[in-house]
Design goal:
Strand content: 15-25%
Number of strands: 12
Order of helices and strands: HHHHEHEHEHEEHEHEHEHEHEHEE
Distance between the termini: 35 Å
Structural class: alpha/beta
Number of helices: 13
Largest sheet: 6 strands, parallel
Strand order of the largest sheet: 2-1-3-4-5-11
Shape: globular
C-alpha cells in the first residue's frame, strides 16, 4: 500500500506553508509564480494524487476553535503564545475557521474555573488550553471528552488526560536544568531560595509544581545538602514585595542563589536592582520583555526560553490536521529548552519564519 502523502510533506519539500499548498491544490487566492511553481514541482516529485472529495468537504466546513489561555499583556509570555496562534490561523485563511478567545487570570483559580465553564458553553469544534490549574483542566477536558471535542494543551502536559497533542517545554527537565545551573555558579556552602508567585485559590501553577519536582530530583541525585528556602511574592499586589522579599534577605545572609519558577522573574530582579543586591545569582523562566532587559543589564544571570509562539502555532496546525486532513498527530511535543544569557539574548529569536 503506497504511503499517504500529507500536505505537510508537500509543504516541506516545496519550502512553503501548508496554507500555500492548499491554495495551489484548490486554486484559491493569489499566489506568486515562484510559490506555485515550487508546489507543483513538489507534487510531481511525490506523485501526489489528491482525494478531491475529502479535501473539498474539509474546506467547505466551518470550524469553531476556542482558545482558553491567561490574559494577554504586551511583552509577556502569553502574548507570544497568542501571536503564534494568530500566525497559524492566517496560514489557513482559505478555510473557514472561527477563532474565539476565552481569557482568565493566571493568578486566580476562580477566574480560570469561570473561563473554562464558558468554553464548554461555547460548543466548540476544538479547544486549545493553557493548563495553569491542573484540577480545573482535568474537569474541563473530561466534559470535552464526553462530547468528543478534541483539545490541545500548550505550556505543560497534564497527567491523566487525553489531548490530541500537547506543546510545551518539559517542565521536569526545565527544573532539573535550573538546579544544575544554579549549583554550578554559586559557592558550595551557600543557600538557595526558590521564589514563587502567590495565586488566589491555589498554591502553585501546574508548571511550577512539575519544575519543582525536577529541581528536587537534581538535588537528590547529586546529594546536595545545601539549604533550600521558599519565598512567595505577589504579582497582583506588588507593594507587598518590599516586606515579603526584604524580610527574607535580612534574615538569610548566606543565600547566594535565587530561582523564580514562573515568567515573573523581573519582579525579583527589580527588587535586586533597587536594593543593589549584586552577590546573589538569579535564574528565571521565559523571555518576556522585562526579563530580557534584566538579563541585558546583568541582574538575571540565566533565563530559560520555552518558545511559546511556536507552541501556539503548532497547536493550531495539529488541530487543523486532525480535523480536516485526518492526519496522525504526534501527542508529545516538547520544545527545545533555550538557555539565554547577557551574551546571546540580543541574538535570540524564538521562532523564525
Amino acid at each position: 500500500m503506497p504511503k499517504k502523502i500529507r500536505v505537510k510533506d508537500i509543504a516541506d519539500l516545496a519550502g512553503v506553508s501548508p496554507g500555500t499548498v492548499d491554495r495551489v491544490l484548490h486554486n484559491r487566492g493569489n499566489l506568486s509564480a515562484k510559490s506555485r511553481e515550487a508546489v507543483e514541482n513538489a507534487l510531481k516529485k511525490l506523485q501526489y494524487r489528491p482525494n478531491i472529495h475529502i479535501s473539498s468537504l474539509s474546506l467547505k466546513k466551518k470550524y469553531k476553535l476556542v482558545v482558553a489561555i491567561p490574559k494577554v499583556f504586551k511583552g509577556e509570555y502569553w502574548e507570544d503564545t497568542q501571536r503564534g496562534i494568530f500566525r497559524a490561523i492566517k496560514e489557513y485563511d482559505n478555510m473557514d475557521i472561527e477563532c474565539e478567545f476565552c481569557y482568565y487570570d493566571q493568578f486566580d483559580l476562580f477566574s480560570c474555573r469561570e473561563s473554562f465553564e464558558k468554553v464548554i458553553k461555547m460548543a466548540p469544534d476544538a479547544v486549545i488550553m493553557g493548563t495553569t490549574f491542573r484540577d480545573e483542566t482535568i474537569h474541563t477536558v473530561n466534559v470535552l471528552g464526553d462530547s468528543n471535542i478534541p483539545y490541545v494543551f500548550v505550556d505543560s502536559p497534564v497527567e491523566g488526560t487525553l489531548p490530541v497533542a500537547f506543546f510545551a517545554s518539559n517542565p521536569f527537565k526545565c527544573g532539573y536544568l535550573i538546579c544544575k545551573l544554579i549549583h554550578s555558579i554559586t559557592p558550595q556552602n551557600s543557600d538557595f531560595v526558590v521564589f514563587q508567585t502567590v495565586r488566589i485559590g491555589d498554591s502553585s501553577a501546574n508548571t511550577t509544581v512539575l519544575r519543582k519536582q525536577g529541581f528536587m530530583a537534581y538535588c537528590q541525585e547529586h546529594d546536595l545538602t545545601r539549604r533550600l528556602h521558599r519565598v512567595s511574592f505577589s504579582v497582583t499586589e506588588p507593594e507587598r514585595n518590599e516586606s515579603l522579599i526584604g524580610d527574607f534577605f535580612e534574615k538569610n545572609s548566606n543565600v547566594q542563589g535565587a530561582i523564580v519558577l514562573s515568567s515573573r522573574g523581573s519582579v525579583v530582579a527589580d527588587y535586586f536592582k533597587k536594593h543593589k543586591i549584586n552577590d546573589v545569582k538569579l535564574i528565571c523562566i521565559d523571555v518576556t520583555e522585562s526579563n530580557r532587559k534584566a538579563v541585558q543589564s546583568g541582574i538575571i544571570d540565566f533565563v530559560i526560553g520555552q518558545r511559546p509562539q511556536q507552541q501556539g502555532y503548532m497547536a493550531v496546525k495539529a488541530l487543523v490536521q486532525f480535523l480536516t486532513y485526518n492526519n496522525p498527530v504526534r501527542k508529545e511535543n516538547y520544545m527545545p529548552i533555550d538557555i539565554l544569557t547577557k551574551e546571546n539574548i540580543d541574538m535570540y529569536c524564538e521562532f523564525n519564519e
